[in-house]
């Protein structure tokens, strides 16, 4: 069997299936490979002084953004950095971009295609996970670490009564509010509501420690929400750094008794 003929046939098929067109100063290539949303991958190739610049012009980022997948989450940042290093990208977040020399343009185009596919797979990192699920996880964490707490108590504020997720008995009494959001807009709204709640509660309860716990693993969360929560919470804890919650609360009654 002529194995070389297989390679030739594949190359001829890919050539026929690839659509090329001029786009201002670039050549647009639409290749017969898809992102996870089943859209064909397009790349724009522009000549430079010493080779070529290849980019997807932000199409992959746009697809993820419209699917409410933020790339600011720590685990997604790590994934992006890994992809950027693996394929030698100039950038990976807002656009997939790389440079190629004349002699390796074909290989680098393949790198760009594979990078787009890999980054588009971040769509699968969105999990069906609810606020109730997150509260349950935090509750289990508190129980495992020996804390006594009341769930969903009513706490008096200066202007109104408020429900909080947990009233924790520890070295010092603490109120814990959990925040899981499906998108950045919701995360910001939740942060603002929590800020008002903490401000109002603080008006009549100076002795309490007010703790906000944010789901930065399965939920969405950005710098603006973080700034609001940092300003109005005594302690802000991310779920990826959940051990910091133990520090924020101090020793539980169980552990203090053991000491």
Question: How would you characterize the overall build of this protein?
Answer:
- By secondary structure, the chain is of the alpha+beta class.
- Helix content is 42%, strand content 24%.
- It contains nine helices and twelve strands.
- The protein has helices spanning 3-17, 59-66, 74-87, 105-120, 131-144, 184-202, 223-232, 243-249, 253-258, and strands at residues 19-23, 26-34, 40-48, 51-55, 97-100, 148-151, 154-156, 161-163, 166-169, 174-179, 209-214, 235-238.
- The strands form three sheets. Strands 1-2-3-4-5 form a five-stranded antiparallel β-sheet, with helices on one face.
- Strand 9 (166-169) and strand 10 form a beta hairpin.
- Helix 6 (184-202) runs parallel beside helix 7.
- It is elongated.
Q: What's the helix count?
A: 9
SS elements, strand count: 12
Structural class: alpha+beta
Compute the separation of the termini in Å: 76 Å
Overall morphology: elongated
Low-confidence stretches: 254-259
Beta-strand content estimate: 15-25%
Query: What is the helix/strand order?
Result: HEEEEHHEHHEEEEEHEHEHH
Residue-averaged pLDDT? 90
User: What does the radius of gyration come to?
Assistant: 25 Å
Largest sheet: 5 strands, antiparallel
Helical content (DSSP H or I, runs of 4+): 40-55%
Q: Which sequence of strands runs across the widest sheet?
A: 1-2-3-4-5
């Amino acid at each position: 069997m002529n194995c070389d003929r297989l390679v030739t046939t594949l190359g001829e098929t890919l050539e026929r299936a690839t659509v090329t067109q001029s786009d201002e100063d670039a050549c647009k290539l639409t290749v017969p490979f898809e992102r996870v949303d089943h859209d064909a991958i397009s790349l724009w190739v522009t000549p430079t002084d010493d080779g070529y610049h290849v980019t997807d012009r932000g199409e992959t980022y746009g697809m993820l953004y419209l699917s409410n997948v933020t790339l600011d989450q720590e685990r997604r940042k790590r994934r992006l950095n890994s992809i950027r290093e693996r394929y030698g990208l100039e950038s990976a977040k807002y656009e997939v971009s790389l440079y190629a020399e004349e002699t390796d343009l074909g290989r680098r185009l393949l790198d760009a295609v594979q990078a787009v596919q890999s980054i588009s797979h971040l769509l699968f990192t969105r999990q069906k996970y609810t606020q109730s699920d997150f509260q349950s996880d935090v509750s289990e964490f508190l129980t495992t670490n020996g804390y006594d707490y009341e769930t969903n108590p009513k706490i008096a504020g200066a202007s109104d009564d408020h429900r909080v997720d947990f009233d924790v008995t520890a070295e010092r009494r603490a109120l814990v509010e959990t925040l899981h959001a499906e998108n950045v807009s919701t995360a910001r709204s939740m942060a603002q509501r929590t800020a008002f709640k903490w401000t109002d509660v603080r008006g009549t309860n100076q002795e309490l420690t007010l703790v906000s716990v944010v789901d930065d693993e399965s939920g969405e969360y950005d710098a603006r929400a973080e700034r609001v929560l940092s300003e109005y919470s005594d302690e802000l804890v991310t779920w990826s750094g959940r051990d910091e919650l133990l520090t924020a609360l101090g020793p539980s009654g169980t552990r203090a008794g053991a000491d």
